[in-house]
Amino acid sequence: MKKTNRETIITAAVLLVVLIGAFALDAALPSYHIAIKVVKKACVYSLVAVSMNLLNGFTGLFSLGQAGFMLLGAYSYAVLCIPVAKRAGVYQYFDGGLVQFSLPEIFSGVLGGTVGPVVGMLCALLVGGLIAALCAYLIGLPVLRLKSDYLAIATLGFAEILRAFFQWNALGPLTNGSNLLKNYPDLGGAAAYVILVGLFIAVILLLVNSTYGRAFMAIRDDEVAAEAMGINLAHHKRLAFIISSFFAGIGGGMLAMYMGTVQALSFKSAMTYEILLIVVMGGIGSITGSVLTSFLYIASLEWLLRGLDSGTFLGISSPIFKNGFRMAIVSVIIMVVVLFFRKGIMGDRELPDLFRKKAKKEEVSGNE
Amino acid sequence: MSEAKNVLRLEHITMQFGGVVAVDDLSMEINEGEIVALIGPNGAGKTTAFNAITGVYEPTNGQVYFLGEPVVRNHPQGKMKKQYKGAEAEKYVHETVLNPTPDKLTALGMARTFQNIRLWRTQTVFDNVLIAKHMLRTSNVFSATFRVNRAEEKRQRAEVLELLKIVGLEDVKDELATSLPYGKQRRLEIARALATNPKLLMLDEPAAGMNPQETDELTAFIGRIRSEFGVTILLIEHHMDLVMDISDRIYVIDFGKLIAHGTPEQIQNDQRVIDAYLGVEDDA
Amino acid sequence: MQGLLPYLINGVSVGGQYALIAIGYTLVYGILRLINFAHGDVFMVAGLIMVYSSATMPIYLSIPLVLVLTVILGFTIERAAYKPLRTAPRMSVMISAIGVSYLIQNLAFYFTGGLPQPVTNPIPWISDNVTLFGESTKRVTLVTPFLTVALVFALVYLINNTKIGMGMRAVSKDFETAQLMGIRINSVISMTFVIGSFLAAVGAMLYFTNYPSVAITSGGMPGLKAFVAAVFGGIGSIPGAVVGAFLIGISEELIKGLGYSTFSDAFTFALLIVVLCVKPTGLFGEKVTDKV
Question: What is the value of pTM for the model shown?
Answer without folding.
Answer: 0.90
